[in-house]
Amino acid sequence: xxxxxxxxxxxxxxxxxxxxxxxxxxxxxxxxxxxxxxxxxxxxxxxxxxxxxxxxxxxxxxxxxxxxxxxxxxxxxxxxxxxxxxxxxxxxxxxxxxxxxxxxxxxxxxxxxxxxxxxxxxxxxxxxxxxxxxxxxxxxxxxxxxxxxxx
Length: 151
Prior knowledge:
151 residues, alpha/beta, two-stranded parallel sheet
């Protein structure tokens, strides 16, 4: 697994987004592992959720991540045409697209959800994906549902 970068947090540090990352157990999780082997740093506030395939990504899982306080959600799967479950990543992509539409309709912003396709050796790419997503979420601000959650 990669090396999360604590960013040298200070008492008045800027907003640090929490990101839930759904990965397939093949290429995507291997890329996370490669990032660790290469000692690539990326923001620390990610929560990894391994799925057998991104085809198992369900709209409910994505929405629930936001309900539970994620500022952003990222789905990472095998490259298109190279899915270990044939077309699982294509099914996952359509569910992410649909969920982005729902997020826009409810005013949460579809920009908080994205999907990427990478192979196992792309640890640096995984790190860059998380860094770019963190920057975008910092510009968007915290998930507005965080204040609405009951304890």
